[in-house]
Automatic annotation (TrEMBL):
TM segment ranges: none
Protein name from the UniProt record: VWA domain-containing protein
Pfam families (UniProt xref): VWA_2
Signal sequence region: none
Coiled-coil regions listed: none
Originating species: Lacihabitans soyangensis
Domain VWFA: 179-277
Lineage, highest ranks first: Bacteria, Pseudomonadati, Bacteroidota, Cytophagia, Cytophagales
Amino acid sequence: MLGFQFSDFKPDEKKNTGFEKLLDIFQQLLLIFSGNVSEALAYMNDLDRQYKLTDDKYGIADFIDELKEKGYLTEAEGDGEMIMTPKSEQSIRKRSLEEIFGKLKRAKSTGNHRTAYTGSSDENSSDIRSFQFGDSLDQIAMTESIRNAQINNGMGDDLVIYEKDLEVTDRESNIQTSTVLMIDISHSMILYGEDRITPAKKVALAMAEIIRTRYPKDTLDIIVFGNDAWQISLKDIPYLEVGPYHTNTVAGLELAMDLLRRRKTKNKQIFMITDGKPTCLKEGIRYYKNSFGLDRKIVNKTFNIAAQARRLNIPITTFMIAQDAYLKQFVHEFTEINKGRAYYSNLDGLGGFVLEDFERNRRRKVK
């Protein structure tokens, strides 16, 4: 008789060890404290005293020893201060990907982005069309072609198939995509008791990991912008800190477009995580700053750069993590000029919005 056989449930022992539970908390704290191991561990001690994270069998000192043994921490030369290792940095990227985007299965064919154009490529679509000169033999849809021949030429024993009877499975063009992710590190990203920079760092780490694992042919450049803008490497992200900066959105966009000009790919896009208010321009060696509102001089320059990106067919997607009505209006106008997209996201939903738009932009039409 068919049926089901049950057995006792045995939870994943690895994920329920004291080490694994504490590692998850520790990695969160490393991002919050910008990679400062000492501060993260000190805070863990406070949490342990308050919430009893450990017991008599496994304590924080045991956890620290195991972090060293497993290669997550090492001692810096000279002062002996504990610092993160590349293994620790990689682990934080993977954890950010799982937290924000879920446990995504690696695609069978990696490195491809779909565009609206059809033609010669690696992947068949579900569409059937008439044969055209240049189509390969392996594209011929035999069932549909034979049916057309029977209808057009009769059902005799000697079936003849003409070119007009042939139908083929269409193919979709797969191309690489170049993305620049911009992160606002101005002082407003930690104002009003809200930590906006840590979620932004998590999104950047998760984006880097998803591109590295699912789309290895793509490129991702990451830049930060305050009074100025500069490019950072992947390993720098956990250590990012907000500075005493204004928001020079123009400098960030100019650098992003300069990086994309060097890329030979057709699909290009900019993702910008910001609180939505540009407050600074650089004029020669002088900074023009106005933190009290949307200064017309700064706004117009920002609108000009949005129009320039549109002419280069570079959409800008703005992820705004502030809810002020006048800032929403500015972002709306900026987006209209660029013909890009804007999301007014809370911090919890930020990662999901980024992934959704990243996947959507993979399918946009490239001129």
